[in-house]
Each structure stands twice: as structure tokens, then as C-alpha cells.
Amino acid sequence: MISPIEQKVLDAIDLPGLLAFLDQMVAYPSLGGNESPIQRFLAEQMPAMGLTVDVWQLDFAALRQHPAFSIEIERTEGLGVVGQMGQGDGRSLIFNGHIDVVPMGDPANWHYPPWRATLDEGKVYGRGALDMKGGLCCGLFAAKAIHDAGVQLKGKLLIESVIGEEDGGVGTLATILRGYQADAAVIMEPTQLMIAPAQAGALNFRITVPGHSAHGALRSEGVSAIEKFIPLYQAIMTFEAQRNAGVSDPLFAAYPIPYPICVGTLQAGNWASTVAESLTFEGRFGVAVGEDVTAARRAFEAMIQQAAQADPWLRQHPPVMSWWGGQFEPASIPADHAIVTTVGSAFTAITGSAPTLQGMPYGADMRLLVNNGATPTLMFGPGDVRKAHQPDEYVPLHDLEVTARTLALTALRFCGVVE
Amino acid sequence: MISPIEQKVLDAIDLPGLLAFLDQMVAYPSLGGNESPIQRFLAEQMPAMGLTVDVWQLDFAALRQHPAFSIEIERTEGLGVVGQMGQGDGRSLIFNGHIDVVPMGDPANWHYPPWRATLDEGKVYGRGALDMKGGLCCGLFAAKAIHDAGVQLKGKLLIESVIGEEDGGVGTLATILRGYQADAAVIMEPTQLMIAPAQAGALNFRITVPGHSAHGALRSEGVSAIEKFIPLYQAIMTFEAQRNAGVSDPLFAAYPIPYPICVGTLQAGNWASTVAESLTFEGRFGVAVGEDVTAARRAFEAMIQQAAQADPWLRQHPPVMSWWGGQFEPASIPADHAIVTTVGSAFTAITGSAPTLQGMPYGADMRLLVNNGATPTLMFGPGDVRKAHQPDEYVPLHDLEVTARTLALTALRFCGVVE
Fold first, then answer.
1. Which of A105, B300, B322, B417 has the fewest CB atoms below 10 angstroms from its CB?
2. What distance in Å separates the CA atoms of residue B325 and residue B320, rounded to the nearest whole number?
3. In chain A, what percentage of residues exceed pLDDT 70?
4. CATH class of domain segment(s) A4-198+331-415
5. What average pLDDT does chain B have?
6. CB atoms B284 and A260 under 8 Å
7. From B231, which residue of chain A is nearest by alpha-carbon distance?
8. If pLDDT is split at 50, 70 and 90, which confidence band does B167 have?
9. B4-198+330-415 — its CATH code?
10. ipTM here
């Protein structure tokens, strides 16, 4: 299963070095908008890993023109960093990872230093250790092992360190506008070592329900926006149930609700004894793989409209709806695509187990590479996304090792080796 | 119906003077905590109206010891002002009015200057014109007319200008601790010229509903506090319906819901695509006339507890409830009390119409005078409380005139006249 050259490369994977490097990466508090220091650091480190480096300032004015441009944190500057190895005769491959992280939240909830990578009982803790400096580090150390083993790839391997994934994907979009494209890509987002050839879409929505204020002592003279929210919420839940009842995609069979609608925030009224004259709620609307986003939005809007029609007050005072923030299209590639089978066979060679193929329910940069970058992409990476954005975020050391080894083997097999 | 002495007093009521004085009163932005300038002004003006004046600094340390003490705006100082006339041989009577006003809100919503009293088509606009500088002004000008007509009251008439009604009633409580008590009192709150021998109670509550956060893409792994709010809200509405189904008090027959429960505010979650891990809502719980406040609170708590028991999650993670802010007891006096019949006959003498007796659904200082001040009290005053706390708050000129005249006649008849 594993050739001598492959074994040489696997033997060259420097796990202690990977951990030390991950610690250096986590030490950069690379929150959205503050990504340049770590990008410069990576660009400096890449040549020693056998990578030639392209570093450039993002052209936000140009990016803003692109239909897929999405940003929530305003930036005046940001760097693109792409490392490259391989002579360019075989198939090209991208390893993509974002280096922006979300805020650490209340430090009191952390039992480990958020801005260090701390190994404790097989888990590496730290903000971004999981999401997803760990995964990116695996890609870098896979390339480094190839280089250290003296092996040269036939096709090109590109390592993209991108900013702004958490707030819309501007960094990956910038690599596309820079001209980067490949025969396949792997994004090392946390998938618990599952291979994800599909990701669901997610559309943020906001709905404001009008009421009519009155003194609480005379509440029947007002109309409570809180009361009027309830039938809308129930209509949304019924809509979710209907949409999910028909899902037969085996990649999403593991999820109780493949494409959930989550109402996440709610705010109403301004005084305890005044009838609430307005209620605003926000949520995320899960879009199925293969579903047209525009059609999905229309169906959602029609459902809200219909629910409003059923209520005499809402019929006259319709809820006001908007789509804002993250508008993530779904994306998928064929489950028998060469990158899927290559990662799968590499995973089996490393672990002795068959790979699990599963769709991911969350949005990530995969949609940009697939839908805008003409690059068939899957997600495969260490750790469980449930720990992302949490205090004591962690990635299992075992997953880091399996990922680095699988990625190295994938690069060798997908790009080919100069004999 | 009206004696010559009474007619002399009624003829002495100076309506243009009242309007000019109301304008001066409205010009003081006497928001809670900023009441001393207008209190000093009134104390200066009272002697020319035939009133001897008691002005004192409130002793907040002593007030704080009283079980009925309630305050939402912290104050370092505040003035009590009570004017007095009459020789003290007959029945004593209090006219009570508060001079604190609520904030004007967004000035863009006003079509009249908020800090002037502007007469337009029979309505006097301005912050506090209705709630309740207008009513207090009527009391003052009733006294002034008695003085100007050269009539002397047998019993004592006390005019209490009090602070802090809007945030709990500290000013009226201070008059009680100062020793002021009378055979009856009239509070000139806006009742649309109805006589209110009863007021409902109101208790502010706050309930926090626990949930369990999860990524919105995996929402079935979390528990939405928003979802768990709905059965609690429905239980509250059922409880309200049950409590009001049995109300037979004719004083509250005019209200569709005599003792409403209003959920006024609601806040849940902190991110659109995260399952809300907590929801907090606030409201006011209407308490029936004659109902024991402690028993009412217990019934409410038991209902919430029972609703929580019906849900597997809430049974394990019960909602957290607290009583906060306004905790207003109900209050009432017999509908055939002498002050009720006296105001009623005076009203009929002035207007030619029978008075309407109606309970008021909102809390005011009446509870303090009745329950803590040993003074039988009703509310009777100009204008509609629905316009209170609103932009373009107004009081009808006609109501001011009827109130001033009815109060003058009430004082003459209740306190008696020195022949």
C-alpha cells in the first residue's frame, strides 16, 4: 500500500516540530482584521519548508466588485500568502486553510492559555488550534516532509494561508482573483477526519415583527409583537420539517436535521409594562446541497408571507425581512471525484480504516473554490467543529498526525512524484 | 344645587391664570431626580394662593427603612412641599399630585414644544401637561379661587406636590412619614373625569429561561431558549384568562382584561447562527383589587413552575424568576365613601351629568395614601392616561376647567365653610 518513497516522506513528518510551530501560530492573536502579522510570519517560514512564496496586498476595491464578496469586519489592508512546490507537469493541488480566528470570549471560561498551544492528555488547546491553524499546520508540515525527504512533486502543490474566512471568505476569494486554480483542493477544516465532498449553504436572515404599543395595564388596546412572533416561529419550524422530510442525500443521513433553520437571537420591547411595539429576530437558514439559493430565499419569504396572511394584524402590518451577513451557497463535488478517492485511499493507507464520507452542515470557503474558483474541493481535517468558537477549543493530537500523514500521501499520489 | 358662596368661588376660578401657571410648570423639565427647582417654585407661589407652606428635605435614610419604600432613580436630595389652608375644625382633605415627569423621548416625534404648555384646538400639549402637572394645577387653582373669593374653609385643605411618583412613590411616602393624614384625599391623575375609588396592583417580574448553545448548523444538539419560552408564554396567557374570567367587580367591568399580564420585553441569544442558550423576559402582572399581593405572587410562581414541569428540559433546568422594580399593591375605598359621594355630587353640579365610577388598571400613589397613610383616597382628574408618557402628551382644556371647578366645590363641601 505504501511505496518506499511514500514511507520516506511519512518518516520525515516532524510531529514535535509541528506542535512547536502550531504553538507559534496560536501565539498570534490573528482575529479578523488583525491577520497581517501571522501572514508575514508564515511567508517568512515557508521557504525553509521548500515552498516559494507569493505575498500580496489584497485589493479590496477590486474584491468588492465580485458578486461573492462578503465581509463583516472592515479592513484597510490584508495579505494573501501562497506557498508553492512541484515542477508543474502533473495534477495541481491546493491545501487551503484560514488563519483568522474568532475572539476568545470571556477568559474566565478558559482553563488553558488561549494564545498558546497546550498539549494535555492528547489534546492541543488554544484559540484557533482547531479552527483551523491545526489543519493548516498539517498542510505545511506535509509539504515540509516532502521537501525534507528530498522528494519532488510532478504537479504543483499550493498552500494557501487565507484571512477572513470567519467573516465571509475574502481571503480565499482573493486567491481566486489572483489567478490561483488547481485540479483539486483540500480545505483542512475540522471534519473529525471525515471526507466532506459537500457542504450545505447557510443564509442569515433578520425579521422585524411590528406591534402596537400600549400601557401594559391596557394591553388589549395594543398589539404585542411578542405574541405575533409565535405563529411566525411555528411556521418556520413547520417549514424546516417539510424541507428536511424529503432529504435522501446519503451524505447528510447522519444528521437529525440535515438543513436546520436556527432562530438565534430575539429582541423585543423596551419596558416591562409596555406592550412590545416591535420584535426583531435573526437566524440562519440551511440550504441543501444542489439547491438554488435564490429559489430557497423565495420559498422562505413566501412561507413568512403566508404565515402573516393567516393573522389579521400581520396581514395589515407585514413582517419586514432582510438577508444580511453570511450568505453562503452550498457546494459539492462528485463523491467519486479523483480527489475524494485519493484522500480516501491515503486515509486508509495511514489508518487501516475505510474513510467516512459525510456532508458538512456549515458554510466555509469550499463554496468559493468550487463555485467561483473552478477547483473541485473537499474538506478533510482534524478535530470536531463542535469545539470551534468555544472556550478550551482543542484539536486531538492523533487527528493532527493522521491529517499531516494523509495530506502528504495525498500530495504524492495526486500530484505525482518526479522519479 | 350651587350655593351663593360656592358660586362666588367658582366665579373666582381663573382659567387663563391656570393656563399661564401650567405653562410655567411645564417649563421645568422636572424629570425624576431633577425635581427640586419646580418644588421651590411652587413653594414660593403657594402663599399668594392663600396657602401656608411646609417645605422639607426628604430623609432618604429614614424613608429607605419603610416597607413601602420603592425607588428606581437614586437621589441625593429631594423636597417635600405641602400647602395648607383652613382653620382645622371640619373634615380634612388632601389634593395630591406628582410633579415628576417621564423623559420626552425622541424630540422628532413631538409636534409641539415638549417643555411648554401649548393650547391648540382645546388641547394643552406638553410633557407633564397631562401626567400630571395639569391635575395638580387644578388643585392649586381651586384653592386659590377659595382664597380669592374671601372664603375660609372650616376643615383643613392640604395640597401636596410630590416627587418620585413615576419611580415608586417616594414623595407621597415622605408626606406620610412627615405626619400628613386627612379624612380623605383626591389624586388628580388622569381618569377622564371618572371617579376611581379603586386601583389595581401591578408587580414587575423577570424570568430567565435556560437553553443550551450549539452551532445553528447542528441545532438539534442544542436546546433553544426561544423554543422553551413559548410554552411558558402560553401558560402565562392561560393563567391571565383564568384569573380574569372570574372578575365580577363592576368598577372593572369596562375593561376587556381587568387585570392584564403583559410581557413587555424579551431578549435572547447573541448570534444568528448559534442556538440561544438563554432568554430573559420581563413583564407586569396585574393584581386584583382586594387581592393579597403575596398570594398573587405565589400563584404566578406556581403557574410557571407547573409549566416548567410539563417540559422535560425545563423540569431539569427550571426558569429563574425574580420580582423587581415596581411592586404596586392594589388599593380601594368603599364606593359609597363620603369623598366619593362628595366628588360625585360636585361633578354633577358642575357638569349636569352623573359621575362615572371606574377602577383604574394602573398603579399610582393612591395605594400609599390608602394602605400606608390611613387616608381614604380616590383618583379624579383631567385627560386620558393613554396619552401619558407619549409624544404630544396633552390634556383637554375642558377637563382642566371641570376638574378645577369640581375640586373647588369638593373642598367647600367636604371641609365646610366658615360662615
1. B322
2. 16
3. 100
4. alpha beta
5. 96
6. no
7. A230
8. confident
9. 3.40.630.10
10. 0.90
pLDDT at A329: 94
Cell (9 digits) for A145: 516532509
Q: Cβ separation of A268 and B269 shorter than 8 Å?
A: no
- Is the distance from CB of B12 to CB of B148 less than 8 angstroms? yes
Q: Which residue in A217, A114, A101 sits closest to A161, CA to CA?
A: A101
DSSP states of A28-94: S--BTT--HHHHHHHHHHGGGGT-EEEEEE--HHHHHTSTT---SS--S--EEEEEEES-SSS--EE
Of B202, B275, B389, the CB nearest to A262: B275
Cell triple for residue B231?
Answer: 410554552
Chain A residue with minimal CA distance to B256? A220
Helices B293-309 & B225-245, crossing angle to 10 degrees? Answer: 130
* Third-level CATH fold of A201-328: Alpha-Beta Plaits (3.30.70)
Q: Could you confirm whether B165 is annotated as catalytic?
A: yes
Q: Would the CB atoms of A273 and B204 count as touching at under 8 Å?
A: yes
- Rg (alpha carbons) of chain B, rounded to whole number: 24
Q: Using one digit for the tens of pLDDT, what is the confidence trace for B288-299?
A: 999 999 999 999
Q: Which residues touch A348 (CB under 8 Å, ≥6 apart)?
A: A1, A354, A355
Q: Which three cell numbers stand for residue B53?
A: 407652606
Q: What tens digit of pLDDT does each residue of B193-226 get?
A: 999 999 999 999 999 999 999 889 999 999 999 9
B385 to A394, B57, B135, B221: CA distances (angstroms):
59, 30, 12, 48
Task: Choose the catalytic residue: B23, B35, B100, B365.
Answer: B100
What is the residue extent of each domain of chain B? 4-198+330-415, 201-328
CA distance A3 to chain B (A): 40
pLDDT tens digits along A298-352: 999 999 999 999 999 999 999 999 999 888 999 999 999 999 999 999 999 999 9
Cell 405653562, residue? Answer: B23
Q: Provide the strand spans (E) within A87-148.
A: 93-98, 118-120, 123-125
